[in-house]
Amino acid sequence: MKLLERKPSKTLYEIFMITLAGLSIATIWQNTGFNSLIVWGTWSIFFLDFVYRLFKSDNKWEFIKKNPFIVIAAIPLDAIFQFARVARILHLLRLKSITKYYTMPFIRFLKKQHLLTVSGITFFLVFLLIIPLNLLENELHTYSEAWVSAILALTFFGRSGFEPETATGHTIIVIFTILGVIIHGLIISTAFDFLLKSSFVKSLKNKLENHK
Q1: What whole-number distance in Å separates Cα of residue 185 and Cα of residue 63?
Q2: Which DSSP category does 168 fall into?
Q3: 31 belongs to a structural domain
Q4: Minimal CA–CA distance to 164: which of 142, 141, 133?
């Protein structure tokens, strides 16, 4: 498996960037006092990495064409906007692109696994994490509330419906955020592959090739 054959340093770096981006997304909806530092720190590291990869690529234009969303993510468009809500949305879109970029090796690996296995592991992990979340966070009174918060964090990239008061709570929301990005990427990638293999798309391709 390619994921297991890769250099450990590269995998560790990608995990670090995923965690950093996940932390940024999870705290973007909260006023922690460190939001700007986390978001712009993540962007700075990503921007340097992007410039390095672009510089090292043999065909720079091909690299840009293959990674259009990464190119957009490298441009700090949110710095132009003064409205907090607009800036947050742009922050979110950029950080989501960054997270998806670094999670692609993991998404490709998961696509090769059985869907039920991946779903089962994800469900089990979420089930385990809502236990300490419910016990430690005062805003959550029942496990059903913790479960709803977990689903919200997975679906809406860290927007869990409450502000964690503990470091453990923040960490769990970050994990949910990262899982959410991976699940979104996995669903979109699988759906796209399904469409490409569908008879309609194949017939459309054949018609276009015949016209040529």
Answers
A1: 20
A2: H
A3: yes
A4: 133
Which letter does DSSP use for residue 79 in this model? Answer: G
Distances (CA, A) of 96 to 32, 149, 160: 20, 19, 16
Does the global pTM surpass 0.85? Answer: no
Taking the C-alpha atoms of residue 183 and residue 208, their distance in angstroms, rounded to an integer, is 33
Provide the domain count of the chain: 1
Contact between 91 and 138 under an 8 Å Cβ cutoff? The reply is: no
Spans of the chain, pLDDT less than 50? 82-83
The HSE-up count of residue 169 (CA atoms within 13 Å, CB side) is: 18
CA distance 177 to 149: 11
Question: Which helix (H) or strand (E) segment is 90 a member of?
Answer: helix 84-111
Is there a domain that residue 104 lies in?
A: yes
